Amino acid sequence: MERIPTDQLSREELVGLIDRLFDALERSERRNAELEQRIEDQARRIEELEKRNPTPRLDEAYSMNAEERRQTEASGKKHKQKSKRRGRISTDEKLALATLDEDIWPKSFKRAECQLRYSRPVWRIVKGQAVLVAYHIYAGPDGRVPPIPGVPPRGEFGREIIVSLAYQHYIFGLSLDQVLGEFSFFWNLNLRKSQADAMLNRLAKEWLPEFDALCQLLAVSAVVYADETSWSIHSVWAFLSEKARLTIFGCHKDGETLAVLLKKETFAGILVSDDAAVYEGFSQAQKCWAHLIRKAIKLTLLKPNRPRYRGFLDSLLGIYRRAKAIAADKRLGEAGRRARVQSLVDAICECTGDRFADPRRPNDDVEHDFINLTHEIVRLLGNEELFTFVIHTEVDGTNNESERTLRPPAQDRHTGQTNKTARGCRRRTIITSVLDSLRVHLPKLTLHTVLAEIESWYRSGISCFRRMVNTLKLPPPQLPPNVHSPLELLVPVPSAS
Are 102 and 136 contacting, i.e. CB atoms less than 8 angstroms apart? Predict the structure, then answer.
């Protein structure tokens, strides 16, 4: 607004201008008074809260150990924790504590023909209690030393202890402290956390070839169920098939990671998954009906007053039930099932046609989600990824099994039991995948059957997984130079870790 000099204003105009300025000044004073009152109120509330909780909130820890660390860092000296242990117990001291002795010699010779080579103390579970056994190892006349049955080479614990530790920690999801507490309560076996950690590290190292064999078997499986979820380090990915069950912890959720296990150009099986973009491009696929139905259910819950959403959900459920009935009809062959798929296709077109062809823009976000869902269903129908399970009866219409596999890892995120390093992810990946895959190859998964199977691996020098790889005459995996295992590509370990 152009400013007019006051000497050009009349008396009436000057009086009006002064009145307006006075009004503006009064409004400013009232506003300042209101703000000052609010400041006083807030200050009074803060004072009342401080009286209720006079202790100031600190971001730093204020325990005795934390204060000692701060003083040590301030002085520049390195703080060395005092070990509670009195030092490493010698083998002779352990042998003196043993309550059971057992001689081991080659069964092809008599005991008198063999010569004592060494003795080793090993913790075993005997009649439900931990017992320190002194094994006396005899070498035969040919100089050969037999292994201790059920004990890893140079191991101090039986495989029943190691496998129980791995199964309860990684399959049941118990923390190491909880597992060691159970060992102490049930078996009277007192282990240190460092001992448990060393056992798991060794087990993962021993089972790495078995994991590599499982990767080869997964690539030639007839049906693979896949799903993923977030993890403390990147993601955790589950791949389940009739030959292998792999759970990859700490991997990236991208096409490069997927290509390590399932190459789209060579995988001839059927992939069952959700509609994530990373799963696009496989020659045969089945998209999860549970995901589609859940999206339709969400629409009815958000807008229960719109009957078209309820009608769409009922139609979708009816189509899926019809598809399940056709797939389960033993009277039909593959040709008969293919013929009946056309009626399901027509029902999908009728169910989605009105909204798919409607050019009107959505009124709100819920309607927009409804449009996206109809377009998604039509796209999957065009890609022939909705009714694969009807034609191939060995396929399920959902990937619920892989979702259930990832449920315990997802719960671990809330309890703080996720891995914090790539090496921990690798260890968990190997042990979990091998133990889970034994479900496929054993008639019943129990500690007894697992130990018997693993013991046969060490006797024959080959596991059931690698034996299947040899039977199928699978070529070794194509890996880049200086890469010895697919795990190095799935979960790379930073050089600094």
Answer: yes
pLDDT along the chain (497 residues), means of 10: 63 80 86 88 80 56 71 70 64 90 92 92 95 95 92 93 96 93 96 95 96 96 95 94 95 93 94 94 95 94 92 94 94 92 92 75 88 92 94 94 91 83 94 96 94 93 94 91 93 70
Report the distance separating Cα 172 and Cα 128, nearest Å: 20
**Residue 240 CB partners (closer than 8 Å, separation 6+):** 224, 225, 226, 246, 401, 402, 405
Report how far apart, in Å, the C-alpha atoms of 245 and of each of 221, 408, 471 are.
11, 15, 19
Tokens 């008599």 map to which residue? 110
How far apart (Å, rounded) are the C-alpha atoms in residues 250 and 233?
5
Helix axes 447-460, 422-441, angle to 10 degrees: 100
Radius of gyration for the chain, computed over Cα atoms and rounded to the nearest angstrom: 35
Cα-Cα end-to-end distance for the chain: 67
DSSP assignment of 170-188, as one string? Answer: IIS---HHHHHHHIIIII-
CA distance 347 to 38: 64
